């Protein structure tokens, strides 16, 4: 197989098919396991390779010893990256790991329907699952950071993109299924005054207990809805001015050291804050966060608001993109005018089959250019909301070309350029770590560089 063909197929597999979250229970059902590679203090299990290979086959690709070797080689390179990161003191902060772990678990909860359903599916508590996943996630983020360090500053010109595309064998140009561009404007449901009052009263009670001598850290671990910091007793670590949301920061910086704030409200919910330290333009605070129940809120106001906004858009009083930027509650899509992007490629053109199923079912009944009436949905962090969807464009199935698929080809070309740099790095670095490969995999010739 032409090496360019191998790269394109592998790139497309990684960029558009692999899920963007850690697979819980990966390798379940494999009863015989063994260590097949050691890289310093890191190991690769046979179940790790089988899980990667099964994911590869799930796309309907034919079984291949070469493909399995490619999977193993990728795993080895990742372990070398992790080992070298340890040697070179490339460190991922625990705060980042906890934040990413929370984000991914929230995503999973949105897919399963609730955290309780995740626990039922795997027979373990959320905390137990997080504990199991944390080590592998930290390693994954460390590998990513090490790759970024090695390839930072690498750029690619339009001429290089064209040369890359023209070098692909004509019979190997990827065939893309239907792609769509979809936008959304979101309004989160209103929490009632009664819910807010109840939340404030609960936090006031907790604050009184702390003032009367109970331990802030213990109460944060017990009651805080900020699961990432709760594990650290509510401690958020040092933050620079402007890093936290304005309401939180303003309240924290009014405090004297060790003082506890009254209950304050931010976009995340309600907090009590204790200032632990200040040094220059940095401060260290801890908090207890309690969110009102966003699962049971009034959506009447949000629906009426979006109905009115939709009418303005349809009458050309305001464009969809401007309305999204100014009024949408979805901070991820609002800056881009509400247009959704692919999580891996960053492109606004998303394969229809990769759309959120609810969005897919909605736009499948719409014509291009139309805007839906308000529809209910649940945000990734569990809030009840309404949204209107804009079916901006549709691209029929086609072979990749520079006009319709510039971003994908650009990413692939840049990926190949970075791959060459990583190849050179691997060749220089593999002798700096201990690598032992099981005899069953010697035929893979893993130490001959990245193919």
From TrEMBL:
Q: Which GO terms describe its molecular function?
A: peptidyl-prolyl cis-trans isomerase activity
Q: Which UniProt keywords apply?
A: Isomerase, Rotamase, Signal
Q: Does the keyword NAD apply?
A: no
Ranges in a coiled coil? none
Q: Which Gene3D superfamilies match?
A: 3.10.50.40, Porin chaperone SurA, peptide-binding domain (1.10.4030.10)
Where the record annotates domain PpiC, the positions are 177-277, 280-375
Q: Which InterPro entries match?
A: OMP_Chaperone_SurA, PPIase_dom_sf, PPIase_PpiC, PPIase_PpiC_CS, Trigger_fact/SurA_dom_sf
Q: Does the keyword Signal apply?
A: yes
Q: Which PROSITE patterns match?
A: PPIC_PPIASE_1, PPIC_PPIASE_2
How is this protein named in the record? Peptidylprolyl isomerase
The species is Rhodocytophaga rosea
């Amino acid at each position: 197989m032409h090496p360019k063909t191998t790269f394109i197929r592998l790139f497309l597999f990684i960029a558009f098919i692999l899920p963007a979250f850690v697979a819980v229970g990966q390798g379940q059902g494999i009863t015989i396991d063994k260590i097949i590679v050691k890289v310093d203090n890191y190991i690769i299990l046979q179940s790790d390779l089988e899980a990667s290979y099964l994911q590869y086959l799930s796309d309907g690709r034919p079984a291949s010893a070469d493909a399995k070797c490619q999977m193993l080689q990728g795993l080895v390179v990742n372990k070398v990256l992790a080992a070298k990161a340890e040697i070179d003191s490339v460190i991922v902060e625990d705060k980042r790991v906890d934040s990413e772990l929370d984000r991914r678990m929230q995503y999973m909860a949105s897919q399963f329907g609730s955290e309780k359903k995740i626990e039922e599916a795997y027979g373990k508590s959320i905390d137990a699952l997080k504990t199991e996943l944390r080590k592998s996630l930290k390693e994954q983020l460390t590998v990513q950071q090490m790759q970024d360090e090695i390839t930072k500053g690498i750029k690619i010109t339009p001429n290089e993109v064209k040369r890359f595309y023209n070098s692909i064998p004509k019979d190997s140009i990827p065939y893309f299924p239907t792609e769509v561009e979809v936008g959304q404007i979101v309004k989160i449901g209103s929490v009632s005054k009664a819910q807010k009052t109840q939340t404030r009263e609960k936090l006031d009670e907790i604050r009184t207990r702390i003032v009367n001598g109970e331990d802030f850290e213990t109460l944060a671990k017990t009651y805080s809805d900020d699961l990432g910091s709760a594990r650290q007793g509510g401690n958020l670590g040092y933050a620079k001015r402007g890093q936290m949301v304005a309401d939180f920061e303003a309240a924290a910086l009014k405090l004297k050291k060790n003082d506890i704030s009254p209950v304050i409200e931010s976009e995340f919910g309600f907090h009590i804050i204790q200032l632990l330290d200040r040094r220059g333009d940095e401060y260290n605070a801890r908090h207890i966060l309690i969110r009102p129940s966003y699962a049971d809120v009034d959506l009447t106001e949000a629906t009426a608001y979006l109905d009115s906004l939709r009418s303005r858009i349809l009458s050309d009083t305001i464009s969809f993109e401007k309305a999204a930027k100014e009024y949408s509650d979805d901070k991820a899509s609002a800056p881009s005018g509400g247009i959704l992007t692919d999580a891996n490629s960053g492109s606004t053109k998303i394969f229809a089959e990769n759309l959120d199923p609810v969005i897919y079912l909605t736009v499948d009944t719409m014509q291009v250019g139309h805007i839906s009436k308000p529809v209910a949905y649940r945000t990734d962090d569990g809030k009840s909301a309404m949204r209107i969807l804009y079916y901006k464009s549709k691209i029929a199935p086609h072979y990749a070309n520079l006009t319709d698929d510039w971003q994908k080809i650009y990413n692939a070309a840049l990926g190949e350029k970075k791959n060459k740099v990583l190849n050179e790095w691997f060749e220089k670095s593999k002798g700096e770590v201990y690598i032992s490969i099981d005899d069953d995999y010697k035929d893979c010739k893993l130490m001959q560089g990245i193919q």
